[in-house]
Amino acid sequence: MNFWETITGSDITREHKAFEVRADALPADHRAAWTEIKGHLAPYADFTGRNLTPILDSALGLLEETAADGQSAREVLGDDVEGFCAALAGGEGSRTFRDRWRRQLNRNVARKLSRLGG
User: Within 10 Å of residue 37's Cβ, how many Cβ atoms?
Assistant: First the structure.
């Protein structure tokens, strides 16, 4: 990856287009699962989204293998696709920026309320 690709994000665009070509070859239930996985992994992305590229590649590879084996997407992913994605992104219960901001906001509000009440 060169400097220009890093700045413009063209490397990510190219990889994501390749993912979509691979996903288009999947059966319908696997394509639907792919769309759901992308949606649930989005909150775990860093500023550029580069951290998700290997995770998305692995998830798509899993869907491709299971489709080739004749398994349904739900047999592999289960009913909790969101939990599956959380586990892929760094472990069950991993923190996102949104979780940290929420915790900080709650702490600030509690501090202000204790000043008003005490």
Answer: 24
Q: Could you tell me the residue range of the domain that residue 107 belongs to? A: 3-117
CATH number of the domain encompassing residue 39: 1.10.1900.10
User: What are the contacts of 59-65 at 24+ separation with CB within 8 A?
Assistant: 59/34, 59/88, 60/19, 60/22, 60/23, 60/34, 63/23, 63/26, 63/30, 63/33, 63/34, 63/37, 64/22, 64/25, 64/26, 64/30
Q: Model confidence at 102, in pLDDT bands (50, 70, 90)?
A: confident
Residue percentage of the chain with pLDDT more than 90: 37
**How many domains are there within the chain?**
1
Q: What would the pLDDT profile of 24-50 be if each residue is shown by its tens digit?
A: 999 999 999 999 999 999 988 888 888
